[in-house]
UniProtKB/TrEMBL annotation:
Keyword Protein biosynthesis: no
Name recorded for this polypeptide: Glycerophosphoryl diester phosphodiesterase membrane domain-containing protein
Organism: Cryobacterium mannosilyticum
InterPro entries: GlyceroP-diester-Pdiesterase_M
Entry's transmembrane regions: 92-114, 134-163, 184-213, 219-252, 273-303, 323-353
Domain Glycerophosphoryl diester phosphodiesterase membrane: 228-342
Chain intervals for the UniProt region annotation (Disordered): 1-46
Record field: compositional bias (Polar residues): 12-24
Keyword annotations: Membrane, Transmembrane, Transmembrane helix
Length: 394
């Protein structure tokens, strides 16, 4: 046998037949023969794929592996598309309720208080006006408290939705609200604590500046310096603490921890990934803000122009375009606010999942949970050291 035949070369190209057909449609002499696919349809030869390698599973929202920077940016928007009724619907409903409560409570109190000021005798008008402003300020506490609780509920809903979407599950709005309702008060308490700390820090800076200004003289210059550095220090402190503690809502909802343990664990998970966590959240916030301004600014300009053209002595027909534009501005603001809340909360949830994949091998636990038999009652993969507890929505 010739040597060329022993090593598999074609010695007679005129009689050569393709091993994949009957020779009638085989390649002609000089044509390139495509490589044969291995049994089972795996990767083609020459791809340099390691033996036994398989791509990470992607049962739902994201692949079960540590996430890249790009995935952390686009995946939050996929949360809106994947389950819009539960995510966008929850955000829009909650924001609409808060807005309506603000208009009703604050608007009613303001109208009543200003009416009393107008009808009060001239000698008592100053005292009535002071009481009116106090009443208006106190009435604003009602929608503020409602917005804190509603914001905590919405953040918990989005966190839970991202966690279950990663496993390929799609819960309904009622299921999400019911499951998050069990952890609502820790979430609300955490939101109140954060707001109280922020208000206290700003109050200290503002109080010191006002005190130095009232002293006059050289103290005014010190007040200006203190105000500038105080604001910069507040921004830096808010960015640092906000980043280190940004995972607390995820830990309250998904790992069912108390406030103290959630704070400690969030601090630990973000250790070594501070700038990455801050950068992703900051970039997502900038993108949302730019898009919101592009959409809202033209409508706001139209509203301003329309109100400036209205004749104060005209009737309701003249005011009608302004009323329609105001409702349009309010509706656009509600929609953009709902989208922004969903995307930002989803970003935090994805950062939490990514950090646990990198530090604790959560991707293996998630893959094991996905591969288990449906309805087998497996333990929740997000819980830490809590075997035997059923997964939410299972």
């Amino acid at each position: 046998m010739p040597r060329c035949a022993s090593i598999g070369l074609v010695t007679d190209p005129q009689n050569w037949q393709s091993p994949t057909n009957d020779g009638q449609n085989g390649p002609r002499y000089g044509e390139q023969v495509p490589p044969l696919a291995p049994p089972g349809g795996g990767p083609q030869p020459g791809w340099n794929v390691p033996s036994g390698w398989t791509p990470p599973p992607r049962p739902g929202l994201i692949p079960l592996r540590p996430l890249g920077f790009g995935t952390l940016l686009w995946a939050p928007y996929q949360v809106l598309r994947r389950n819009p009724k539960a995510t966008f619907g929850s955000a829009l409903l909650i924001q609409a309720v808060v807005t309506l409560a603000t208009l009703v409570v604050v608007g009613s109190v303001t109208f009543f208080a200003l009416s009393r000021v107008d009808s009060a005798p001239l000698a008592e008008r100053d005292a009535v006006q002071a009481g009116a402003w106090v009443g208006i300020a106190l009435s604003a506490l009602v929608p503020i408290a409602l917005s804190l609780v509603a914001g905590a509920l919405l953040q918990g809903v989005i966190v839970l939705e991202v966690a279950r979407a990663t496993l390929g599950e799609k819960l309904r709005l009622g299921q999400l609200w019911r499951l998050v309702g069990r952890r609502l008060w820790p979430l609300a308490l955490w939101t109140v604590l954060l707001s109280a700390v922020a208000v206290l820090a700003l109050g200290l800076v503002t109080g010191a500046v006002v005190l130095f200004v009232t002293l006059g003289g050289a103290w005014v210059g010190l007040a200006v310096i203190l105000g500038i550095f105080g604001v910069l220090l507040f921004i830096a402190g808010a960015a640092w603490l906000g980043t280190k503690l940004s995972l607390v809502p995820c830990l309250i909802v998904l790992e069912r921890l108390g406030l103290r343990k959630s704070v400690q664990r969030s601090w630990s998970l973000t250790r070594g990934y501070f700038w990455r966590t801050l950068g992703v959240q900051l970039l997502v916030a900038v993108i949302i803000n730019v898009v919101s301004q592009v959409v809202v600014t033209p409508v706001s300009i139209l509203f301003s122009v329309a109100t400036s053209l209205v004749d104060p002595n005209a009737g309701f027909d003249t005011y009608l375009p302004s009323v329609i534009l105001y409702v349009l501005v309010l509706f656009v603001s509600l929609v953009l606010g709902a989208v922004a809340t969903v995307v930002q909360s989803a970003t935090v949830a994805l950062i939490y999942i990514d950090l646990r994949m990198r530090k604790e091998g959560l991707d293996l636990e998630l893959a094991r949970f996905v591969e288990s038999a449906p309805g087998s009652g497996g333990t929740d993969p997000y819980l830490v050291g809590a075997a035997g507890r059923e997964a939410p929505g299972a």
